[in-house]
YkoP-like domain-containing protein
Amino acid sequence: MNSSLLVLWGLWDDVYQRCTRLKYIEKGANIFRVVPLRYRGETLVTSDNQTIFNGDLIVKIHIHNYYFATLCKGVKDDLRVALLLRRQIMVSLPKLAAYLESMPERERIKGIVGTTMLHKGVQPLGFSISDVPMNWFFRYKRWYLRLLLRIVHPDGKKRVQTWNHEMPLKRVYMSKEALLKRYGTMHASTGEVD
């Protein structure tokens, strides 16, 4: 990625952060930013058979794209980018679980939910995947994420064209119970291995 473009993106990201309710899990060390809100959408059934209904309180997760772009600077290989993203998600999930455990409204939170084009390989991490309705909001979000992919990925223009049909926008989600069991303090203290 062009260094001057990355600097401009950093300035924009700072403005964006100040204008939204997104919170850092751990700035500069965690790929997620989050916001608690009411879920709006179709009923979701998680891999551990928990149900998230329209109106339930969730933690909306967002990949911190600018942070990830800084990590990818100079990386040219597709596989290395994918492995870097997976590693960042795996390192970030325990901190996300700890953050959720510390939230005052933790008892009412049903799970974590995000929307992404980069959903391949997330099911072994505990996430479930479903389609999103292609209304105006999700069409805009897909356009925005494709634009980011063009900027972040070392061969972004080609990848966007190649992934046009292979990388649809999807909803990824996990119940609070599954997140805490797999990545929370109980998991860490018992030394469980998945």
